[in-house]
Specification:
20% of the residues lie in helices and 32% in strands. It has 225 residues and is of the alpha+beta class. The chain has two domains: 34 residues, no CATH class; 179 residues, Electron Transport, Fmn-binding Protein, Chain A (Pnp Oxidase, Chain A), CATH 2.30.110. The protein is built from six helices and 14 strands. The N and C termini lie far apart (57 Å). The chain is globular, with a radius of gyration of 21 Å. Helix 3 packs across helix 6.
Length: 225
Amino acid sequence: MLNGRLTGRPTPPTICGFGCIHLIPTSIWSRMNKLQLTPNTTLYPVPVVLVTCGAGDQVNIFTLNRIASCNAEPPMLSISVRPSRASHDLIDQTGEFVVNIPWPNLELVADFVGTTTCREVDKWQETGLTTQPAVVVAAPMLDACPVNLECQVRHRLRLPSHSLFVAEVVALHALPDVLNGRQEVDFEQAGAGLAYRAGVVRERPVDNFQPDALRQQIHRWRDSQ
């Protein structure tokens, strides 16, 4: 860019606010013919987490990708849940939940608990997942996940399709394997966490989703643990 005009010469390296270095020929921008598409939340990647909620004999687990960090002090995050989901009422009633960040090898589990409902399936029996009590909230933590964030809801917002729960992270637990030298969670170092691509579950088109086949896979995974 020179005096507001595009040139064919590469732009000098620039560093964005996240520390990334960019070197992009400005001529590329002049060749772009963008199409206007139907509005949607096209973000990539986004995290995939396993959320536990409820208490006592009414505890559920579900997969969630509508999650974001939204405040630094105190640490807060937001999740969006459809009111039709069984977990929605559990979170709304208790005002608590736990965000469990999975290892990549839990992708089958994420698929299964995200495509079944506790109204019809005993997810705990099917997956063999185990839990341990949280320190602050009533919802349990997943043993299989290296990082667990205990959350208490501070704000609720009803949106057209989802309910937005803004929650404070009141306790954080992590395995030593995922910590760096400063005792901070380092996902790149640990290789932890999953990513979700819109319209695809584990690189598999949603149109080809076969719940019975997935159940057989999850049983094989459970029995191998």
